[in-house]
Design goal:
Glutaredoxin, 8 strands, six-stranded mixed beta sheet, globular, two-stranded antiparallel ribbon, alpha/beta
């Protein structure tokens, strides 16, 4: 089909039929109305939030269970060794619940928790084991620079950590009457430690 040449009369705007309607105009007019719908964000229901929190809690508990899978349980392994300060600590001779705390100078979580352990040692029986952290002198320098006063047994080769089944730091054991009552892997609050020590004293 050949193209029809333009008719000069078509250029006169007065000749436009007012009834003519360009479908494209509708598209232009509808764009502003569509924008708010695109910006709208669906609200999360309480049920979905509860499910998400539950999933996160299960993952957290699963990781902690995996980290403590080899941790000692039941009768506590023997622990009788000299501390950096000199006196020998003997777990078997303890007449009240003891917190046995494994940590390392290179462990970031241990550093975040060390203030809690130091405060706990002021009114509870606490013995800590610095594992794979160098010589006694280097561990003592760390204690001095961080102003920590809790008792420390140095475990440079990780022998004690291995005996207690420690695979991650920090790891803490609440021991009463020669039995391991509670095991905590990772950061634990002061209230959490105190509650476990209290429970060990009454059960």
């Amino acid at each position: 089909m050949a193209n029809r040449p333009p008719d000069p009369d078509d250029d006169d705007p007065d000749d436009d039929d007012p009834g003519d309607h360009d479908p494209g105009d509708d598209l232009v007019e509808e764009v502003p109305d569509a924008k708010p719908a695109a910006d709208a964000k669906p609200k999360r229901s309480w049920k979905r939030i509860a499910i998400e929190v539950g999933v996160i809690a299960l993952i957290f508990l699963g990781v902690r269970a995996w980290q403590s899978r080899d941790a000692a349980s039941g009768p506590a392994p023997a622990l009788r060794q000299a501390t950096l300060a000199g006196p020998t600590f003997d777990l078997a001779a303890a007449d009240s619940p003891v917190l046995v705390h494994f940590w390392a100078t290179w462990c970031g979580v241990c550093q975040a928790e060390e203030g809690t352990i130091d405060g706990l040692a002021e009114d509870h029986r606490v013995i800590t084991i610095a594992s794979q952290s160098g010589t006694p002198e280097s561990v003592q320098r760390y204690l001095t620079s961080h102003e920590l006063g809790f008792d420390v047994i140095n475990d440079p080769a990780g022998r004690l950590a291995h005996a207690w089944g420690v695979r991650a730091f920090p790891s803490s054991f609440v021991v009463a009457d020669g039995q391991i009552r509670h095991v905590e892997v990772g950061y634990t609050t002061s209230a959490g430690f105190r509650a476990r020590l209290w429970l060990a004293s009454i059960l």
